[in-house]
Amino acid sequence: METLWSDFLNSQWHDWRGSGRSEDRLELRAWQERFLSDWHLAAPVPMPAEAASAMRHFRERLHLLAVKLADGGGMEDGDWQLLNEHLALDVVSRRLIGRPGAVRLVYVPVTEDWRHVRAEIAASFGETLLGGETGRIRVCDNPDCRWIFYDDTRNRTKKYCDDKMCGNLMKVRRFRARKKAGEERGEES
Ligand SMILES: [Zn+2]
Q: Residue 104: pLDDT above 80?
């Protein structure tokens, strides 16, 4: 399942096919437009340099936290502090939207900028914590890929970001390794 926070972390892209290529998509205009539109957020595009450096810094720390939780670690004081730091900087106002039979209370950002986006990312991570299911945070088992995702499958056994891509690739790699090991044994005898 894609969440706002994992989509943000995956802006640091690694070629899952194993070419060793990686790309920081955070500063690509196309990535910024797609990201804001997918999550119904608004902020200046292209991202100003100062915002980009704050976003990268936050991404680095949130990535460490996600990997730690994926490895079975727990939240520590500094981790709560990291999330609260970004939540505290945001100012929202509340608005009631009333329609017959449907009343909603919505939070409207006072400023539409990347600082607000970071608060939304921290809030999204907070929702994962509120769900109490940090054991479902995963790093794709393909070491070349390292895609971060939230495993929402019933039996909690999702190992790859995408079974058709990374899952198949790893299956082929295992098959080749076994075949090679078999051939080597064959040559020796
Ligand atoms: Zn993957």
A: yes
